Amino acid sequence: MSVIVIQFITLDGIVSDPDGSGGTPTGGWAFRHGAEAVAGDKFRLGSTLDEGVMLLGRTTWQVFSRIWPGRDDPFSARMNAVPKLVASRTLTDPSAWVNSQVIDGDLIDTVKREQRDVIITGSLSVVRALMAADLIDEYRLLTFPTILGAGDRLFPAAGPATHLECRSAEQSGAAVLARYGRPPHPGGDAGRA
Fold first, then answer.
1. Domain spanning 44-147, CATH class
2. Percentage of the residues of the chain whose pLDDT score is greater than 70
């Protein structure tokens, strides 16, 4: 099992409001590069999406639950089919998006018990909770050539030092998709200590 964070991110590390749904003054920055820059399986999830589980915070889940159920292209069909866990203390009815269930219990314990690969998209509070618990194995970041100067950063200034290795990097339209993961442990095993 791996925990994979996928994010749209600016050159200065901002991840907030890439689609403009948050109504911030700089929102929609990822979509300014055209639909092709963000459409489809830009994060190269492939079979991980088919065999894993998505983990979303309430706000991201609510945005996605208004977008994905009405789409019927092949990638949307995969997004609708994947099991979805929602980290929320207030959401009680996840029926707006098929295969969604609210986590019953502790987020960290749920992730530790999960047997499938866990894919987290958006959901900064969930990502940060898993960062603090040292549970993230890989970051797949689609970095856009935009500098906002303000907004929520993926990696907080007071966060712990983390050493990753670059597994791949490739241009994807106006952006660059880079995969960063935990380096192999001495002795050849990759993953957590």
1. alpha beta
2. 94
